[in-house]
Amino acid sequence: MNKLRYSTPGFKNQQRGVVLAVCLVLLLVMTLLGVMSVGTATSEQRVANNSVFRNSSFQAAESAIETTINTVNLTAAMAGPVTTNLTTLGGAGVTSSSVTQYIATGTPTGSGGSTVSVHFTITGTGTVGGAANAQIVTSQGISRAAPAP
User: Contact, 115 vs 145, CB < 8 A?
Assistant: First the structure.
């Protein structure tokens, strides 16, 4: 039996080093993908941290407003702005403050003049210190009913 052989003269000699070159190109592509994914992960971590710091600042500002509504004597605010400082709120470097300011006094509809409505604005500031250095300022208006003078 005769076996047929297919051969091309010089083909083996032309293939030397091609596998090495292909492997090096694939290694380069995989390295670039790895470096890019690490950069993306780092950026996403920064975005997530900023979101947490901003949320903490907002919660601190809201806490200052709620604390002021529940504890500050609003009659004192009628004489001038009242500042309240809270130093630590559930985390290191988280502080808040509020400023209560008298706006106006009016007569509510249907009160018959026996009561007045006293209007105030409370501005809360929440800050996360350290490397974050995030700050949120929020404001809320309130009204309290009081006996007419």
Answer: yes
When pLDDT is cut at 50, 70 and 90, the band that residue 129 belongs to is confident
Closest Cα to residue 50, out of 138, 139, 128? 128
Average pLDDT over residues 66-70: 86
- Of 118, 130, 138, 135, residue with least CA distance to 64: 138
Instruction: Kindly give, in sequence order, each residue whose CB lies less than 8 Å from that of residue 91, ignoring residues fewer than 6 positions away.
Output: 56, 128
Q: How many CB atoms lie within 10 A of CB 93?
A: 15
| pLDDT confidence of residue 11 | 55
Tokens in use for 60? 């601190």
